[in-house]
Design goal:
The chain is of the alpha/beta class. It is built from eleven helices and eight strands. The chain has a single domain, classed as Cytosolic phospholipase A2 catalytic domain. The chain starts with a strand and ends with a helix. One of its GO terms (molecular function) is hydrolase activity.
Length: 285
């Protein structure tokens, strides 16, 4: 039997689209053999792997305007716009408790993609013990300029999207022959050059390979989109992406706009569900 994978793009607050897709999957008991997430995608993959429908959205809804969750005050005080201790310790252990037991029993393999700032290369970290490996999820979601470098097992890590925004090739190489890909931009989207490169070059001057990866990110990203379009035509991947252009930014705080994007994700998953089942069952007897 071939393995079914799920690949989740990042995108900061655009990840609420992914929340909607995953909540629809969980509502219909659709779980894959493995999931790999980048940045916000890695965060939302956790609630999917622990089978906690609605958890990701509840966290967003409850804490979006909490200064401990995301604020300039947090950035100034801690060096992280997204409060690391609050998000990766207080929330999962006290406020919206992560179901560690279900995660361990699920058998689903979870990977978080990070970028090694010294080499500029992707680190694909398996997350088996979420009390310990949550550090990789944090690193994956640590945005350049807005987060401190996260040190895990001797590696200095930041946002996985810098090195590999949509890690479909890695998952295929791991043996996931059929993959569902959830993107957070509409089909016509193409990434442009990073306008903040002068600041990035100054901030990360000690890490020239990371600067190079940031400078070339749009090239690799757009090439991956072209490859995914070909895979989609060939039938080896099933892509769910926003049916309309996404207007919100990576740091969006307008709850009405975020809710609309979440609902768009849920509805897009519903609209594609029958075709998705066909995709899964054709090659997965």
């Amino acid at each position: 039997m071939s393995k079914l994978g799920l690949v989740l793009e990042g995108g900061g607050m655009r990840g609420v689209y992914t929340m909607g897709v995953l909540d629809y999957f969980m509502e219909h008991n659709l779980y894959t053999d493995g999931v790999i997430g980048v940045s916000a995608g890695a965060c939302h993959a956790c609630s999917y792997a622990s089978k906690q429908q609605g958890r990701a959205w509840r966290i967003n809804e409850r804490f979006l305007n909490d200064k401990r969750y995301m604020s300039m005050q947090s950035l100034i005080k801690t060096g992280d716009l997204f409060g690391a201790d609050f998000i990766y310790n207080v929330i999962p252990n006290e406020l919206e408790v992560f179901d560690y037991d279900t995660f361990h029993k699920s058998g689903m393999k979870l990977y978080a993609v990070c970028t090694d700032v010294e080499s500029g290369k992707a680190v694909y970290a398996p997350c088996m013990d979420m009390k310990k490996d949550i550090a990789y999820v944090r690193a994956s979601a640590s945005l350049p300029l807005l987060s401190k470098i996260v040190e895990v097992n001797g590696k200095k890590l930041l946002d996985g999207g810098v090195a590999d925004s949509i890690p479909i090739q890695y998952f295929q190489n791991l043996g996931y022959e059929k993959n569902i890909i959830v993107l957070t931009q509409a089909k016509e989207y193409r990434k442009g050059k990073n306008n903040l490169m002068p600041i990035i070059k100054r901030t990360y001057r000690k890490y020239p390979e990371f600067v190079k990866a940031m400078q070339e990110r749009h090239i690799h990203y757009n090439r991956t989109l072209d490859e995914i379009n070909l895979m989609e035509k060939e039938g080896s991947v099933f892509v769910i992406r926003p049916s309309q252009p996404v207007e919100i930014g990576r740091l969006e705080k307008n709850m009405h706009a975020l809710r609309a994007l979440y609902e768009q994700g849920y509805q897009d998953a519903a609209n594609h569900y029958e075709a998705l089942l066909q995709f899964i069952n054709n090659e997965r007897p």
